[in-house]
Amino acid sequence: MKRVVLVAILLAFAAASTLAAGPAASATPELQLDGSSAPLAPTRTCRSRGEGQHPFRARDFATEGDLRVGPVSFKALRLAARRAYRTDRINRLKAPPVVRAGRTVTVAIAAADRGDVGLDFLPNVEVERPEDGQSAIRFEACPSDEPAFSHDGTVGYATAFPGAFVVRGTRCFTLEIWIDGREEPRRVTVKVGSDATRRCPAPR
Question: 127: which of 11, 58, 74, 133 fits an S-S bond (Cβ 3.0–4.6 Å)?
Fold first, then answer.
């Protein structure tokens, strides 16, 4: 009788353990507190910004060669398609995101491109290989009237965050960008290398 009771207890415990493990095995992405499906990521705040010698001006937000997606502009990132990057090395694309004052964006490398493309945007961290980089970063811009630390004025129209994309060889890759906590990201394709005669596929 005792053996029967013991077996029943063990079976009940096993069933309870299986139910508890169910949510962990779910393929549903974890949501942010604001309901966005953006990945949980390290955050660059206003305090970790870069600055010039004067307030950031609206006319400098998106110039020729920049890749603009809503309130964020990646400086000179479009020029990567025209440059002769080497196919047999790891290339660094210095294309700092500039985010409109008061806005928040999460930038991620699409899952299919991770391992060949990484983000190097955390202060005091040097990423040498794509697989060692961050797959996503959240950027929180300053208010436009935030006092500057490099001059007597304010931060201005937008906030810049120094850093780079670390890319293996020449290729096309997809950026996913969540804007101000929206549920779904905007996707854009980035082409790296003028030798890439292939046409980049449209982002999915």
Answer: 133
pLDDT bracket for residue 204 (50, 70, 90):
low
Pair type for strands 164-168 and 186-192: unpaired
Q: What b/e string do you get for 150-171 counting C-beta neighbours within 10 Å, with b at 16 or more? A: eeeebbbbbbbbebbbbbbbbb
Is 80 strand, coil or helix?
helix
Query: For the whole prediction, is pTM greater than 0.85?
Result: no
Distance, CA of 184 to CA of 199 (rounded, Å) = 26
Considering only CA atoms, which of 114, 78, 77 is closest in space to residue 93? 77
Both tokens assigned to 173: 């890759």
pLDDT tens track for 26-64? 223 334 445 567 888 999 999 999 999 999 999 999 999
Rounded to 10 degrees, what is the CA torsion of 104, 109, 110, 112? -170
Closest by Cα among 110, 115, 111 to 131: 115
User: How far is C-alpha 128 from the geometric centre of its chain's CA atoms?
Assistant: 17
For the purposes of burial, counting CB atoms within 10 Å of the CB of 62, is it exposed (0-12), middle (13-18) or buried (19 or more)?
Answer: middle
Distance CA 37, CA 40 (A): 9
